[in-house]
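Mods, move this if it's the wrong board.
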Amino acid sequence: MPTSLMCRSSATVSTAAIPIQVIFVASSISGRKLLGKIKTPRPLAGIAISADGRTLVAVDDAQPSLFLIDTADGRVTNEVRLEGVPKAAQIARYASDNSLIAVSSLNSDMVSLIDPSFQQQTAIKVGSQPMDMAFRGDELFVACQGDGSVHVIDIPKGRAKHSFRAGTGCESLGFF
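Not the wrong board. C-alpha cells:
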C-alpha cells in the first residue's frame, strides 16, 4: 500500500475552469477519433468513470447534482441530487475497487460519499474549498485549497477523523 502523500498547490499557477455541456468520446488518445458527443442538461465541472467502464459520473456545475451516463448507450440515464449539499459540486472520484464514489463541493465545503448504486449518500463537512481526493484503505484524504488543510475521512464511520495543514492552495492529492 502506498505510504507517501503528495499535495500539489496551485499558488503559483493560474488556471481557469471552463464549464462544458458536451462530453466528447474518443477511441484513444493516439487515434484521436471522435466517436460521438454526449449532451448533458447543464454545464459540467468534472467527470469520473467506474472501474468497469460502464458508468460515467458527470458533476453538474450549476446545481448539486450528478448526471449518470451509460457508456454503452452514450446518454444520460439518471440525475442524482447530492443530499445535504446546498451548492454545486466540483470533482468526483471512484474508489479503485468501485465500492464508493466521493464528490467534493468546492462552494459548500462538503464531501459526499455515495454507494455505487447511488441509493445511499453521506455528506461530510470539511475545510474551505475542497477539491481533489485520494483513497487509501478505509480513508479518504480531501485537499482543501481555501484553508490549506487536508481532511482525513473515516469511510466506514462516514465522518471526518482529523485534518492537518498542507499549505494554502493545496488542491491535488495522490499516493505513490
